[in-house]
Specification:
142 residues, mainly alpha, yst0336 like fold, two-stranded antiparallel ribbon, translation elongation factor binding, Polysacc_synth_dom, ribosome binding, DUF757-domain-containing protein, PBDC1-like_dom_sf
């Protein structure tokens, strides 16, 4: 059965979409609480943050982590680069392909105008870069 599964033509079941939304929202809320209480520059999100960060810089040297251009992020060219990025790290990150909410602007909170859908590995790559570059430190309430 699984070998004949066609993801492109699979039906979107409302119950599964609700479960994804609950899990993705919980992940976003947890991450926001984390960067609101600890400077991002002091955080490690995975055991392989340095490897993810190095691969991200090589694959996406000009990626604007402060303000993500959603149209560019979701373009076919960008999707192909992200697929290649995933191939190199998919065995290092649990749930690497799970749907996750990502803030478009590093200086803002999660919200309807500041969120987009990404994979867990995309989230890690961008948020690790934001943390290492100190962009999330502004959210820490001392």
């Amino acid at each position: 059965m699984a070998e004949n599964f066609d993801a492109e033509n699979a039906e979107n079941l409302p119950e599964i979409e609700k479960q994804w939304a609950v899990k993705a929202t919980h992940h976003a809320e947890t991450y926001w609480k984390l960067i609101s209480s600890i400077p991002g520059s002091k955080l490690r999100l995975t055991p392989c943050d340095d490897e993810i960060y190095a691969a991200f810089l090589v694959t996406f040297p000009n990626f604007n982590i402060k303000n993500i251009d959603e149209d560019n992020f979701k373009s076919e060219k960008s999707k192909a680069k992200w697929r290649e990025f995933h191939r190199g790290l998919e065995n290092k990150v649990e749930d690497h392909n799970f749907g996750t909410l990502l803030r478009k602007r590093a200086d803002g909170e999660y919200g309807p105008d500041n969120g987009l859908f990404a994979t867990r590995l995309q989230f890690y790559a961008i948020e690790i870069a934001r943390n290492k570059q100190g962009l999330n430190d502004v959210h820490c309430k001392k």
